[in-house]
Amino acid sequence: MKILYVCRLYSGFEESIKTGQWNPKGAPTIARMIEYLDTSKNHNLTIILTQKNKKPSLKLKPIQTFQLDGLLTPITVISGPNIIPKWSWKFQDKFSDAHQLLRIFTAYFKLKPDIIYCDRVNILPAAFLSRFTKAKVIWRVMGVLQEMHQDADKNSIRSNFRKWLWRSPFKSVICTLDGSGGDVWMNKVLNPATLNYLLINGINKENQSTNTSIKLPDGGIKVLFVGRLESLKGIEEFMESFYEAAKQNKKLHAIIAGDGSLKEDMIYQSKKLKMQNRVHFLGSITPNQLKYVRKNCSFYVSLNKQGNLSNVNIEALYDELPTIIPSSQPEKNIDVDTDNFVPDNVFYRFGKVGDKDALVKAILFMANDSNRNNFKKNMRPCAEKLLPSWPERIKQELAIFDDVLNSH
């Protein structure tokens, strides 16, 4: 089976390109599928990664191919908006999309793959290939953004164009079950002939990391936050609430795993408040390192505003790390799935996103050993029932590949 695999050059993949060593951080489903297909005797894989950032940390030629240690398959990277002249002004992204679309069409006609697999941000090539060629396209939606829910109900030129893209005759659409309301969204916008799947990510049930390269504070109550240090992930809300809780409980330490545009501001703020010895920034870390951190923290706070069944959260569930999340937002289709799958005695719901007083109370509540243990004891039974291992999860996706290949 010849597969053309097209996805974004995620920030967690850029480091692999820089070092020449395949060691991805983040986007675990994409990384695991690439690793499996790379070594599979039954699959002939071609990988194309597309840059989307206007100011990428990796400056490349318009199209460039890399052979990384740890992968048999070369990786081709198509540059993004940064190679488009600045005089293009607000159309810089559009010219970049057109450039990437042309390159991907060229690869399709050259390779003649059996299946084309595109992730969410590569909707343009996914839609055009499915509409204007005989390509069998699988579109992979890594969760549904709130603006996608909004566009599904709008009647503007932009939203109608997006709905036209979404209604393309894909052979299959795979959406992550992450609490972002994928089921509701797919039923609204996809082509009725397109088979759609809502799949929860897998977890590593075997790795018991003993990584000691990560330095954590000795003792104390360690509160973990994981994710891009951006407003969308709730880092500002978390830090403000942590500082208030830390005044009332001197044992609290914040462990921050992730990078982002707000990192320097967060470091400056911790120094300004003289909390630098109680706020620990780990930067971007590998899955094995994160496993070690989870095993050595007291509890975890997730403030995802678009769903709280993310991979980090389900890994915390499996590792029995007590977890605080916001309450669901049924009016926005957010975390309805989370409520259905994870009971209140497993994840602690503190209230509405943005309610900092409620989050302070939740942090102080979970700082109590007895309270943490009450949640901890319920986590593993829920995880065993809900969560597949990565090999099981990959098999689910491969079965979809086979169905697409055999479709007419």
Can you characterise this structure?
The protein folds into 2 domains: 2-202 and 389-405, Glycogen Phosphorylase B (Rossmann fold); 221-386, Glycogen Phosphorylase B (Rossmann fold, 3-Layer(aba) Sandwich). It contains 15 helices and 14 strands. The mean pLDDT is 92. It has helices at residues 11-19, 28-39, 92-111, 123-132, 146-153, 157-166, 182-189, 235-248, 263-272, 287-295, 311-318, 336-341, 356-366, 369-386, 390-405, and strands at 2-8, 44-50, 63-66, 75-78, 115-119, 137-141, 172-176, 195-199, 221-226, 252-257, 279-283, 299-301, 323-325, 347-349. The chain is an alpha/beta fold and 408 residues long. Helix 8 links the parallel strand 9 (221-226) and strand 10. The longest helix is centred in the N-terminal third of the chain and has 20 residues, at 92-111. An 8-stranded mixed beta sheet has the order 3-4-2-1-5-6-7-8, sandwiched between helices.
Query: Could you report the average pLDDT, rounded to the nearest whole number?
Result: 92
Strand order of the largest sheet: 3-4-2-1-5-6-7-8
The tally of domains stands at 2
The number of E-state strands comes to: 14
Number of helices: 15
Stated plainly, the CATH topology of the largest domain is called Rossmann fold
- Categorize the overall geometry: globular
Main sheet overview: 8 strands, mixed
Separation of termini? 16 Å
Q: Please identify, by name, the CATH architecture of the largest domain.
A: 3-Layer(aba) Sandwich
Oligomeric form = single chain
Helix content: 40-55%
Q: Give me the CATH superfamily of the largest domain.
A: Glycogen Phosphorylase B
Unreliable stretches (pLDDT < 50, length at least 5) are none
The ordered string of helix (H) and strand (E) elements is: EHHEEEHEHEHHEHEEHEHEHEHEHEHHH
Radius of gyration: 22 Å
Structural class call reads alpha/beta
Under CATH at level 1, the class of the largest domain stands as Alpha Beta
Strand content: 15-25%
